Amino acid sequence: MRWYYHSMSDIIPTSDQSVVLLTMPGVFGLTVLQQLLATIRPQCVVVPAHREQATQQIQRAPAVFLSAPSVVDVALHHGIPVIALARWRDLAAWIRPTTWLVTACFPRRVPTWVRQGVAYALNIHPSALPAWRGPDPLFYVARGDAQPAVTLHLMDDGYDTGPVVAQQRLSACNWHDESELIRAHAQMGAQLLLSLWRGGGDAHAQEQSAISYAHVPNVDDYTLQPTWNQQRMRQFVAGTQLRNHPYYVPLQRCWVDGIGVGSVPIVCSDGVCYGRARKS
């Protein structure tokens, strides 16, 4: 683990601390929760409410998972309350000055008054901040533009701009599909949080000279570049296949659904792959 130190106050665990986890009901949040449960039982799990829906506590508690569970299923299975949050003021009943508020791919910025009402407001971000700030860094990891890494940082008024507490690069991050890519980063993020929980740490301001951004991908970002080798091309497709987005083949001026099956030749720097033409 790589720790950063600064002249800020130490982050020191206390006996009455608790964790409130804010996340989305997807692979990243599910993996973080599963990793934490071995050591920490969060006080509650918070997911965003559906549009125009009031804040409510989700009540269903499945006894058996018949298919892949969600973060909601796992939390309720362990007796952890789940809150579908519509208004930030509704979170006040679940936080106190000793709370560690942890976000993991939560799609909304935490207001200042919420952060000031807890011991620490921390975010798990799957990149080596300040590189690849923004909503979708794992797309650029899959594309081969960004190095696999996770940062645990304190939240401030910006997006992914707060002081870094811990950061770890994933030295070996080979994936067969997008779910594996997400899980590898979520597991590392949970490990960084657990290390902080057990031992405390300090924070370090981000270096402004290394800033880059992970914007929401556009159609141009799905182009299969002929300068890539076959491994990079296959890793990109494998690491983004859950998005159900086609890939553009510039030399053929057409879109394909994937690589491995099909008749569309895809030129690489070290040979040719084949893909299946996208049906219009």
Q: What structural class do helix, strand and pairing data support?
A: alpha/beta
Backbone shape: globular
Gap between N and C termini: 48 Å
Q: Nearest-angstrom radius of gyration?
A: 20 Å
Mean pLDDT: 90
Q: Which architecture name of the largest domain does CATH use?
A: 3-Layer(aba) Sandwich
If helices are DSSP runs of H or I spanning 4 or more residues, what is the number of helices?
6
The largest sheet is: 9 strands, mixed
Share in β-strands: 15-25%
Q: Specify the CATH homologous superfamily of the largest domain.
A: Formyl transferase, N-terminal domain
CATH class membership of the largest domain:
Alpha Beta
**Biggest sheet: strand arrangement:** 1-9-8-7-6-2-3-5-4
Molecular structure report:
The protein is of the alpha/beta class and 280 residues long. The protein has two domains: 2-210, Rossmann fold, CATH 3.40.50; 219-277, no CATH class. It has six helices and twelve strands. The chain has a nine-stranded mixed β-sheet. Strands 10-11-12 form a three-stranded antiparallel β-sheet. Strand 6, helix 3 and strand 7 (120-125) form a beta-alpha-beta unit. The chain is globular. The model is unreliable at 1-9 (pLDDT under 50).
